[in-house]
Design a protein that fits this description.
about 170 residues, mainly beta, Lipocalin, ten-stranded antiparallel beta barrel, 1 helix, about 15% helix, signal
């Protein structure tokens, strides 16, 4: 091998070594772990019996969970679940054209209930405008969940309950 080629090869190896080391030295993110089982298709209904579909998909190398909720009479809505350090957060992209962010209380794998509380909201003109303020996900088992979204309407909390079963 010519001397110049060897020098180039050694230089490239030295430059790339920190990249590969940093990728393997990064600790795996575990704060999303309690929700990863949700990946897949679900069917269900709201409290009035109206049918709803929901789909969960892992994205961004398994660091986010994308939820798409499809009601029967309005456009689908997207909720992104993700880590913020060791805490679990969500941003709900609502058909009301606002985007509330919520943070979960400490969550461990195996918890049967995950509760998200309001942090802030974008694209809301007045604090009394309609927006989501809370989400509780109750896990009955790996094939049955209930979501209780709390809607703030004129300063009053209105729960919206959805029950889902995994599509097999």
């Amino acid at each position: 091998m010519p001397h110049g080629s060897l020098r180039l090869l050694v230089t490239l190896a030295l430059l790339l070594a920190p990249l590969s080391a940093s990728a393997t030295d990064t600790a795996p993110d575990t704060s999303l772990a309690p929700l990863k089982f949700l990946a897949g298709e679900w069917k269900g209904a709201d409290a009035e019996g109206k049918p709803h579909k929901i789909a969960f998909a892992l994205s961004s190398g398994g660091t986010t969970l994308t939820e798409t909720l499809t009601p029967p009479d309005s456009p689908p809505m997207t909720t992104m679940y993700y880590s913020d350090g060791d805490q679990l957060m969500l941003t709900h992209y609502c058909s009301l054209n606002n985007q509330p962010r919520m943070r979960a209380a400490a969550v461990k794998e195996g918890d049967k209930s995950i509760s998200f509380a309001f942090v802030d909201v974008t694209n809301l003109k007045n604090p009394t405008d309609v927006h989501m303020r809370q989400l509780v996900i109750d896990v009955k088992d790996h094939d049955h969940i209930t979501q209780t979204w709390t809607l703030s309407k004129a300063g009053k909390d209105v729960p919206k309950v959805f029950s889902f079963e995994r599509v097999k």
